Amino acid sequence: MAQLANFRLKGLLLLAIVVFALPLFISNPFHYGLATQIALIAGAVVGLNLLVGFAGQISLGHAGFFGLGAYFSGIMTSNYGWSAVPALLVGAVGVGLIAWVVGRPILRLKGHYLSMATLAVGFIIAIILNNERALTGGPDGMPVPSFDVFGWELSPFNQYSLLGVEISGDLAWYLFAGVVLLVAVWLAQNLIDSPIGRALRSVHGSEVAASVVGVDTAKYKSLVFVISAIYASVMGALYGHFQGFITPSVASFDFSILLITMVVLGGMGSTIGVIIGAVVLELLPQVLADFQEMEMVLFGLILMLTMIFMPKGLLPTAAGFWAKRRAQTAGGKA
Amino acid sequence: MLKTMMRRASKVATVAAAGLLAMSVQAADPIRIGSFLSVTGPASFLGDPELKTLEMYVDKINEDGGVIGRPLELVHYDDAGNASNARNFASRLIRSDRVDIIVGGSTTGATMAAVPMVEQAKIPFISLAGAVVITTPVKKWVFKTPQSDRMAAERVLADMKSRGLTKIGLISGTGGFGSSGREQTLAVAKEMGIEILADETYSGSDTDMTAQLTSIRSNKDVQAILNFGFGQGPAIVTRNYAQLGIKRPFYQSHGVASDGFLELAGSSAEGLRLPASPLLVPDSLPDSDPQKAVVQAYKSDYEARWNAKVSTFGAYAYDGLMLAVAAIEKAGSTDKAAVRDALESIQGHVGVTGTFNMSPDDHNGLTADSFRILEVHNGGWKLVN
Question: Hey, what domains does chain B have and what are their CATH numbers?
Answer without folding.
Answer: 31-148+292-369 (3.40.50.2300), 150-282+371-383 (3.40.50.2300)
